[in-house]
Specification:
Blueprint lengths: L4 E2 L13 E5 L12 E7 L13 H9 L3 E6 L9 H15 L1 H4 L1 E11 L1 H12 L3 H9 L13 E5 L11 H12 L3 H7 L12 E6 L8 H12 L4 E6 L27 H14 L1
Parallel strand pairs: 3-4, 3-5, 5-6, 6-7, 7-8
Antiparallel strand pairs: 1-2, 2-4
Helix pairs in contact: 2-4
């Protein structure tokens, strides 16, 4: 395995000291007929206040076991504010694509996976990557990358923060935008992803629990509805229960506050099935 911890490669104005891109890249023997492998870039949750270890390496390892490359983005959280993390994920995707030949990454199959607030980050990247608005933000911050360099090819979302409206997880938006901008209706509307133009969003796999006690299911429901209106490919699973932050949803990621196995543990196998179909198209 090629295990790198990359910091300077994803640094942007406002990046915090501990921010890094951690890679879990398979070493592909020449004896394998298939050399290039898809890569899953994992964005842990944490309300834009921290990045959760429970939604990081252990998740990446599941995708390694499927035969895919993986990486974890330990992005900047509060006190860093928008657009720092969004610029970091863009640089991470571009860097991985630029090194596709060296690491046997399929440059047309780079998917981003986000949990909770990390889901908002991953979804923001998938919503805004091809917009002139975000191109201007990159230019203003000295991030000279083209839209195609930062392009996501797939999006996987686990109980994502999406909406800043009635069902918002407002603490995430306060951490993302800061106290002043989080009270600005224009900024809140811009960060409410279900309200954006979704025509350039890549194929989506998404799941949530019915009565999520932290990020209401309406977040993913609204996003799924918007994707369907835009005629975008989306696979959406709803599992019973009220627990948030489940990660793998079984004994492997239990914690003191997330201690129950649930049927949501099926999501990783369902995502594998979805990825296999996405991989060959």
């Amino acid at each position: 395995m090629i295990h790198n911890i990359l910091q300077e490669e994803i640094r942007v104005p406002g990046t915090l000291p501990d921010t890094c891109l951690e890679t879990y890249l398979l070493e592909i023997t020449p004896k394998f007929l298939v050399q290039e492998r898809p890569l899953i870039l994992v964005c842990p949750g944490g309300g834009y206040r921290y990045t959760s270890e429970r939604e990081a390496e252990i998740v990446a390892m599941q995708f390694n076991a499927m035969g895919y490359h993986a990486a974890v983005l330990w992005y900047s959280c509060a006190p860093a504010e928008f657009p720092t993390a969004l610029l970091e994920i863009s640089k991470a995707v571009a860097y991985l694509r630029a090194n596709a030949d060296k690491w046997c990454i399929d440059p047309e199959r780079i998917a981003v996976l986000g949990f909770s607030a990390g889901g908002h980050l991953a979804a923001s990247h998938s919503v805004f990557w091809n917009t002139e608005w975000f191109a201007q933000i990159r230019k203003q911050n000295g991030v000279e990358l083209s839209n195609e360099e930062i392009r996501p090819d797939g999006l996987i979302l686990a109980y994502p923060v999406i909406s800043s409206g009635e069902f918002a997880h407002m603490d995430s938006f306060v951490a993302l935008l800061g106290a002043e901008r989080s009270e600005d209706p224009a900024w809140l509307t811009r960060m409410s992803l279900e309200k954006q133009d979704l025509r350039d969003v890549p194929p989506v796999f998404m799941w949530h629990t019915t009565y999520d006690d932290s990020v209401p299911i309406e977040n993913s429901l609204y996003f799924a509805t918007g994707l369907m209106k835009a005629r975008k490919p989306v696979e959406y699973h709803v599992f019973p229960g009220d627990m948030h932050g489940l990660s793998l949803a079984d004994w492997r990621t239990r914690s003191e506050v997330r201690s129950f196995d649930t049927s949501a543990a099926a999501w990783i196998d369902l995502a594998h099935t979805w990825l296999e179909a996405w991989k060959i198209h």
